[in-house]
Amino acid sequence: MAAVDVVIEEKKDDSVDRQKICPFLLRVFVSSTGQHHKIAEYHKGNTPANELQIYTWKDATLHELTQLVKEVNPEARRKGTKFSFALVYPDLRTPMYRMREIGSTTTGVKGPDDLKTLGQFRITIGDYMDIAITPPDNWNAGRSKNYTNNFGNRNRQY
């Protein structure tokens, strides 16, 4: 009897054959202030002004979305720029939208949310993505600008 090799491929639950499956439109609203848009900006058929339209799949990662936003937003390419992602979706019980933060990425730094996919957040066609971009100077502002390392000056008299 001849030996038979069995090959088992690990397949993610939310992976998509991008050659066979049509992408869906994801409306992305970007804020460069470091804060997400107010949820009131999404009520009564309104949306914020700064919109990107991205065709993507449910297996797209937050890192992939970061790369797409950086293509059209040159100031977001600086190392250390933080992207905070929130899903905006209709509340099925009331005529309102809800917002849920789902993760963040940082330009030039690998993070725990980079490989999270849209499918993991149970995104539905018609949901919006709200991305707050924080430049590195703003989120490092907690540090004193006059900070100096005095470790080497132990014998200095103050």
How is this structure best described in words?
By secondary structure, the protein is mainly beta. Helices cover 9% and strands 25% of the residues. The chain has 2 helices and 5 strands. The chain has helices at residues 62-72, 136-139; strands at residues 24-31, 51-56, 82-90, 97-106, 128-134. A hairpin with a 6-residue loop joins strand 3 (82-90) and strand 4. The N and C termini lie far apart (87 Å). Keywords: Repressor, Transcription, Transcription regulation.
Describe the strand arrangement of the main beta sheet, using strand numbers: 2-1-5-3-4
Mean pLDDT: 83
The biggest sheet, with number of strands, parallel, antiparallel or mixed sense and barrel status, is: 5 strands, mixed
Rg over CA atoms: 21 Å
SSE ordering: EEHEEEH
CATH topology: Ubiquitin-like (UB roll)
Number of domains: 1
Task: Write down how many β-strands occur, each being a DSSP E stretch of 2 or more residues.
Answer: 5
Structural class: mainly beta
Q: Given the C-alpha coordinates, what overall shape results?
A: globular
Query: Do you know the CATH architecture?
Result: Roll
Which percent range fits the helix content?
A: under 10%
Contiguous runs where pLDDT drops below 50 for at least 5 residues: 7-11, 142-158
Beta-strand residue fraction = 25-35%
Distance between the termini: 87 Å
How many separate helices?
Answer: 2
CATH superfamily: ASAP complex, SAP18 subunit
Which CATH class applies here? Alpha Beta
Question: Tags for this entry?
Answer:
9% helix; Ubiquitin-like (UB roll); disordered C terminus; single chain; mainly beta; 158 residues
